[in-house]
Amino acid sequence: MRAGRSPSQTIGPFFGFALPWADGPFAAPVGTAGAIWLRGQLVDGNGEPVPDGLIETWQASRAGGRGFARCPTDGDGRYAIHTIKPEAVVAEGATHAPHLAVSVFARGLLRRVVTRIYFPDEEAANRADPVLASIHDPAARATLLAAREVDGYRFDIRLQGDGETVFFDV
Amino acid sequence: MAGDRRQAAGVDPPYLHPDYGSTARRAPRRPLVRIEYGPGELSGPAGEALIAGRAVSGPADDLTRHGAGEPIGERIVVHGRVLDASHRPLAGTLVEVWQANAAGRYAHDLDQHPAPLDPSFTGAGWCLTDADGRYRFVTIKPGAYPWRNHPNAWRPAHIHFSLLGRSFSQRLITQMYFPGDPLLDYDPIWRSIPSPAARARLVASFDPDRTVPDWALGYRFDIILGGREGTP
After folding, report:
1. In terms of CATH architecture, what is B5-108+115-224?
2. How many whole angstroms separate alpha carbon A105 and alpha carbon A53?
3. What is the pLDDT of residue B232?
4. ipTM of model
């Protein structure tokens, strides 16, 4: 008989001396042509910032960067990731709109929550994206779209309650 | 949470677990949206790309050599294999660990437990698994420590493990516990795992074969990741 998967446990409050590292938020190095900042705030069910969260992003389309970023949230629940806007990816005949896969870890999360960051200036690709298309509630779908900012995009993550971000079973 | 493939297996904890108070305002209330794995879930970063530029004052997999001297505590060797859901070894994947010192105190500004810090122990390390998915750390056994979840609450001794896996879908953060710890049955975090068999998988086994005579006790802790990698 085969043993099953190892269960998840919370990251707890004391990972800050171990998991973050200086280069962690830089999926693409400073100076990379066309690089953007992805910034956002992690908030709980009361709308309070989550100051002890960890955000990780991964993008299959990464154009020279390593594609992975890790950033702890600060005292205001904010994170910032420096990367390259991903391209659409075609796989098995489906076109996946440009997006980043996101993991959120925090004290009080017994396992990660997973979401995706899509881009507001990719309307045609977003309409064709199989995951976005499967979410019929426009308000829920809107939680997956970043907002344009001067040097990149903003993507807030609400763990619970009004405007709760759509989270995926991965 | 109906329709949630992880929850259905009884392996992972639910998000909302009232005995663990911090889940109350952080647990999502909507059901998870099930998606088919796409290119983003089936791929991931190379472990090597995530260790460049990280510095410790000693070997990253020997937590007893990061300070000026020998840390206080019971020296242990923790080793095991990282496997995928089909029990194939996951080579070259990043394993990160962090823990309290022997007195139950973390080297973290926010840890207010009135137990001593150890100038010879930080409690963080990492390694990449070898071709057989094997990892090995040398460290000291962490102490139990109190927390504020409920009156007279104590966490059992544990080592935090972060496993990157080889794809986004395999990413896991968990905790390793020690066999025979009487605090386990009182711990709402360990007990949040629905299946007793799954709980038991987070308890390391004493390993006499990897116990080093006159030097360190050995523990074995294998980790099996869900998800998968490959092309969709």
Report:
1. Sandwich (2.60)
2. 6
3. 59
4. 0.96
